[in-house]
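--- STAGE predict ---
source: upstream dedup step, 1 unique chain passed
mode: sequence only
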Amino acid sequence: MKLFSYGDSWTEGQGVNPKIENQLQSRDERKQFRNERSWPKHLSDLLGCIHENQSLSGSNNNLIFNTIIADIKSGKIKSGDLIVVMWSSSLRDDVPFFPKEEWHVWGNNYLKDEYKFQWGISTSLTKNANYNDFLVTFKEFFIGELYTQDYYNIVNQNYILFIQKLCEFYEINYIFCDAFDKMIDNIKSNNDKTYNIDTSVYWGFMKQTFKDFLIKTKNPLVWEDPLIDIFKTPGMHPSGIGYRLIAEELYVFINKNNIFKYNQSSKKIKII
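--- STAGE serialize ---
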């Protein structure tokens, strides 16, 4: 069995040692340094298997979704392997009602008034300064007048169920969890298709994220900078200690639930 992990910076391992990470000039060097200290590495050690970290800092859920599909289609992932998906924030996805790659919010915390100053940084993706100013002001209008979780609940149910059904078809073991924003939250009954989701393999489904899990420890050392208040900082990452706790929690979850439904030899993957 091999472990494949998918996600954003929380899965890559960003924050394990910011001082060293910031000194590494190469993107590949930083990724390797982080991966070697990330929760997937700790989890693979606990499981006694090799692992491949397919995450990338800054990833959105659409990229995560398509990377998983590409790895299964190519035959990289075999029957009996284990996929662990730690979803990112829904707000990172490109959506059809915004210009492509020009409008971005990193997560739900950035919807709060005190973090609106960050919008200008995340919006400066064009060479037209006036247009960038417009995008910043439109963000405020969107959040105040147009934003609804309903849209993302519908999209995310489809992400989850496509990967679930694909893994079941190819007899690949899988786990879902949320990094810092819930994939499904405050869902309305007329949009609710969650009864199709196998919640026995979804850690914390609609109840908590791994950010919530680490906050509950009340230990500042689980964060990349223990001197900064997690409740006043929207983009904090776990520390090496935090990532180890995440791995241990997932290991307990695996042992409590029937995660390994398929054996390595149960089915030969047919490449599509």
